[in-house]
Automatic annotation (TrEMBL):
ABC transporter domain mapped to chain residues: 3-250
Signal sequence bounds: none
Keywords: ATP-binding, Nucleotide-binding, Transport
InterPro entries, alphabetized: AAA+_ATPase (IPR003593), ABC_AA/LPS_Transport (IPR051120), ABC_transporter-like_ATP-bd (IPR003439), P-loop_NTPase (IPR027417)
Tagged with keyword Lyase: no
Protein name: ABC transporter ATP-binding protein
Pfam families: ABC_tran (PF00005)
GO molecular-function terms, A-Z: ATP binding
Amino acid sequence: MTIEVKDVTVRFGGVTALKDASLTLERGKILAVVGPNGSGKSTLFNAITGMAKPAAGTVVVDAKRIDDLPAYKRIAWGVARTFQTPRFDPKVTVEEAVMCGFFRLRRTSIMASLLRTPSAAAEEKRFRDRCNEILDDLKLSGFRSQQMSELPMGRVRLVEVARAVANEPKYILLDEPAAGLAVDEQRMLSHEMRRLAERGVGVLLVEHNFNLIRELAEHVVVLKEGSMLLEGTPETIAKNQAFIDTYLGSTGR
Ligand SMILES: Nc1ncnc2c1ncn2[C@@H]1O[C@H](COP(=O)(O)OP(=O)(O)OP(=O)(O)O)[C@@H](O)[C@H]1O
């Protein structure tokens, strides 16, 4: 059970944002993608989730080629994601934002929900109970009634992670989820990522904090100017001179 990205190229006019990128994400594993700004990390996520159309290459999820499917159909394949800059309706509360994540799992009709049939009520209760668990896990319970516009960006990112987790994905793609979080919040997020992997979810993580990557990821892919520079374990990557020159040198991290 894997996501397999093979030789994917994405162009925007004259800019090649991603060139011949390949990776394999297994369920139950955490794979990190690093690279300087503009190296193609978000474009890679967009190519997997259908928000960017590859000029070449394939994306296969659990042996089914999905690169010809529109983004909304890929969600049905159990691929959830977060964005570097999440966008929510500012008036939506934290709880409502997470409840939206259950939409994919809904089995009762809108009419049954409106009429509050027993099965619709039972489903709603199941979603609310799970929502409470997720809010607790991510230490968001105290903010459940707050509107999204009232939260700092770090916590908005956490709400987006919570919404993606509510989706019960097979694979979760997290774009810099720890940016702007306090150390204790980062720790709790790491714990959540590990828990997801233990439950069999494949986690693809874009992250600048290499300590966090070291702690979490089994494998790291390094991008540079849209191409894959190298890949390996965090330990081998950290010692690689090309990585030190292009990544640490350019970001100072
Ligand atoms: N929609 C777009 N239209 C035109 N160019 C784009 C578009 N999206 C990305 N690019 C370009 O593609 C390249 C890769 O961008 P991308 O956002 O994937 O990099 P990144 O590694 O995620 O960067 P960052 O760390 O800053 O988020 C950059 O040169 C960027 O300017």
